What does this fold into?
Amino acid sequence: MKLVFASDSFKGSLSSKEILKLLREAAEEVFPGCETAGVPIADGGEGTVEAILETAGGELWKIPVKGPLFEEREAGWLRMPDGTAVIEMASAAGLTMVPEEKRDPLSTTTFGVGQLILDAARSGCSNILVGLGGSATNDGGMGALSALGVRFLDERGQLLPGTGASLEKVAAIDRSGFAGLPENCRITLICDVENPLTGPEGAACVFAPQKGADDVCVRRLEAGMRRFAALCERELGRSCAKDPGSGAAGGLGFGLRLFLGAERRSGIGAVLDLTGFDQMLQNADLVVTGEGRLDRQSVYGKAVSGVAARCKKAGVPAVALAGSLGEGWEQILSGGIAAAMPIVDGPMPLSEAMNRAGELYKSAAVRMFRMLRCGMKLENYK
It folds into this structure.
């Protein structure tokens, strides 16, 4: 019997790597001697670099950068054996880096992300993957582009820092100090967010409230983003504001696509390819996946749906363990997931569930495997 594990992290409680360990322990308890394989996975957000490093190898390069509040930080990027660079924007501008009482997308910046891109390019990497996810920002990519030499100016010609608040003040773009990247350098954005830059489904309206924005702040950010997009179109003669994914990471997708010619691909698809997931599916009897919350959004390119699609194509059944099941979670059943269950074993506050996440996950995994043992004909199990 061969079990394959590929679960996303439970944000704030369990990492993907910790979940792998718990699943292996539970499987051995119920199916002694079974074969297990697994990969820590992510969809371009937190954990992406760790997942790829764990399975594909490489070297982690660390440099000093500006954090989301311009504080001094250390962040890293992965240099894979083939020279490909993998950058996780959340490592330099992530929401978890900002204390809850300081979360304000008008004040945060992607400057550190630009520093990571520049360092990877200067180190000779011609293929740079940038994971967009888990951001604390809504600056349209102005911060990252500022780190690359683009100067954004207000009506008085004063330099803007490249934050969310800069969007509503920007009046001119000075690219004289922007040398771009080496001609052979290709930027690929790995994310599964398809939101445009502006509008009801845009970066400000959909994601800014998750980063600390109230209604007034959202309106300011939306107006500023429209101003920035219009200025870019006048200055550069083109726009990608309506393109799917331009609203990812608070508009960082827009800035990197417009100024650096970045292309976009599925985040979970890229991670599964880089970690060799398809090869692990060979001769597998079952795959266990999951994420912190399964709901109707889970079917739209998130980690679970990406894993489920690969399993369906390979003809391998897949089940999911989740922190909770939200409204519309049943939709995931049509995408390749055979069954799903939450890890909680009774009513409890969210804080308790998160504090006990390891214990609850292990117990739920054992329950799930015991049910499978009773309900499945496993020829290799004695």
Remarks:
- The first helix runs from residue 16 to 30.
